[in-house]
Amino acid sequence: MTEVKESEFLELRQVNVARGDRVVLHDVNLSIRTGEHVAILGPNGCGKSTLIMAMSCQVYPIVRPGMVVRIFGRERWDLTMLRQHFGVVGAELPGERTAVTTGLDAVTAGFFSASTLWPNLHVTRDMRARSHEALERMEATHLADRLVGEMSAGEKRRIVIARALVHRPKQLLLDEPSNALDLAAQRELRETLRKLAHEGTGLVLVTHHLGDILPEIERVILMRAGRIVGDGPRAELLTEPCLSELFGASVRIGRDEEWLHSW
Description:
- By secondary structure, this protein is α/β, with parallel strands linked by helices.
- It is built from eight helices and eleven strands.
């Protein structure tokens, strides 16, 4: 496996990213340590998902003097090798074939970033063992033989996360993972992410819901209009004045033991 710098997951300097003809990220400067728990918060359309795509090399910055992108200490990666060091969790499973794939096969297909185990893919015994291990970490071994299309939204989300865990990554990138989940499934997801955080997996969580921010997340990054407008401890940034300015509306914050919620 390619050697990586253990202490630093990400370093971005003077990063600008265009989607089509429009620049959607402006002068982003950001460092994240390996194993750190971070939330990226902001209104819809502020560039949060594009930032996650830049971290995972799904989009590339505009090349300008002074621009730096380093992932695990390196500026150049073979993408197949890079994906072995972190996992990406989106709101949906990839591709229409996933619905008619068993839970175990869908997780194993994560080794190939595929929607199912196509006949040309060579699955090793170690891959199967790691897939079972990922399902165990998600407490989802009972889903191994079920078709993904027959699972509840919460069960599908366990499969999505298990896919991201097959490489035993040090860092997970989560792009609004609670979207389309009912209240029970949201609670289940948050308990799962807390468990991963306590096991030492780093989390970079993108959301626009205050309730998604786990108690284990101590650092918050605020985004608006494609720019980072705040970066610091949650106690300083998750306040009614800061969030009201960020979202352009009056925000009230409530507290329930370790959790925050807003209205």
